[in-house]
Every structure is written in C-alpha cells, then in structure tokens.
Description:
The chain is of the alpha/beta class. It has helices spanning 14-26, 37-47, 63-71, 87-95, 108-119, 186-198, 205-213, 225-242; strands spanning 6-10, 30-34, 51-55, 77-82, 100-103, 148-151, 157-161, 164-167, 172-175, 178-179, 203-204, 252-255, 259-262. The strands form 3 sheets. The chain has a 5-stranded parallel β-sheet, with helices on both faces. The protein has a 5-stranded antiparallel β-sheet with strand order 6-7-8-9-10, covered by helices on one side. It has a 3-stranded antiparallel β-sheet with strand order 11-13-12. Residues 123-146, 150-154 and 216-220 have low confidence and may be disordered.
Amino acid sequence: MEQDRVAVVIEDDADIRSLLHAVLEQAGFEVHTASAGLEGVELVRQHDPIVTTLDVSMPGMDGFETARRIRAFSSTYLVMLSARSEEIDTLQGLDAGADDYVTKPFRPRELRARIDAMLRRPRHGLGFGTSELPRRVDAPTQDAVAPAEYDTDDGDTWLAHKGLLMQPHNRVVVIDGEELGIELTRSEFEILRELLESGRRVLSKQDLALMLRGEQYMGSDFLGESEARAIEVHMANLRRKLRESATLPRWIETVRGVGYRLTAR
C-alpha cells in the first residue's frame, strides 16, 4: 500500500466510523480508525496519512483541539465532520487547521468527491525543506501579470514577490532570505501559490473556492455564504502567519467587493 493511500478516521459513533471506513476503503485507501481524539492523534503520528476525517463532537478532547494537535506535526488533509452547521462552527474548524468542513448527515459520494478534489492538489510535506536558495531574481516590471519565476540548478521552480519566495514542489516559503517555520495548512498554501502565480490579476473568493474544491466537484460554480467566509478565514490566517497587515499589506492586497491580488512592486 502506497503511503499516499493511507487514511485515518477519528469518529466516536461506531456506525459512522464503519461507514467512513467502507467509503475510504472502496476508494483504495488503507484505513485506520480511532474512537477518540488522543487515539486518533497517535494514529496520524504513526501512519502519516494523506487524509484524516475528524468528528467535532467527541467526549474528552473535541475535534477542534484534536485538529490543532494534529496540525502541529502533520500535513494530512483534514476533513471535519459534524452535525453542527452554524457558521461559527465551520470557521472555528478552519481556524483549527481543517481543510474542509462537512456537515452530517453527509452523502458518501460527495465526501469522496471532496477528497478526490484534495488529492488532485500535489502532496508534499508542510515542513520546510533545505533546498538551495536561488542565486538571482530577475524582477519583472511593475505591470507584469505574474511574479518573478526562475529555476535553480536542481530544476526546482521558485516564485518570488517582494522578498517572499515560494518553491511549490517542496513547499518551501522564504521571506527576506529566512526560511520560515510557519505551519500553513494545505488550503492556505494553495491560496498563496494561486495568488503568486496570478500576480496582479484579481482572484475572487469564488475563484479561490473553486480552486480549493478541485474546480467544480459539485457541478456548480455557486459560492455560498459559508464558502465565502471560509476563504476570508483562510486569508486572515495566511496573513497572520506571514505577519502581514491587512491594512498595510506587503504582499497581498484586498480589492474591495472583488477579491485579492498581489501588491504592486
């Protein structure tokens, strides 16, 4: 079994745990299950899954705290499952490090579609590597559509904007020559990469939501209020981890009523 086809299910309800096991096993995963948060954290540590599903309302340590503990050491895709459908619950889950939040009762086919969409985004660890930093940046002009992009001797491509460097393949982020130990979630990393690749072109919340979905897995480009708020939470968390001010941004500016884009050089 390839490491990338490993999944962990953390769910205290035995029937739902069995259903999730069956859904993921049918999708070709080696599945490990836990009925409590602490047990689930240890399974993630032991098996390094690419996908982890996580119940929110568990006795003892709830799903939000479990997510925070997992996110402290793992880059697994985190999908939260909960009967709590209030917007504040969704935002709290995303803030704890979840990549997606699915309300119960859920449709197995939709859950598989969401996971398939995640897997279309390349999996590399969130830990920052030690690849050689580029020797030179050929800065584009002020009106350039894309940021500076260049290759190092080992063939890795870097994206650059005003001292912020990203190597998508190894998921390395460098600011002003310092390789940061920030823990971006997969969604935050993908949003940052999409912005760097788009340059001064404005990306709407719908653009970013569809990108995170893996394009149009539900067959619709409709953006619900909860999805729009989720993008706002991801953006706020991304800025906080980059230590950037939303009012005086260095890298990412908000275009009111439209979306986001890179700042001018």
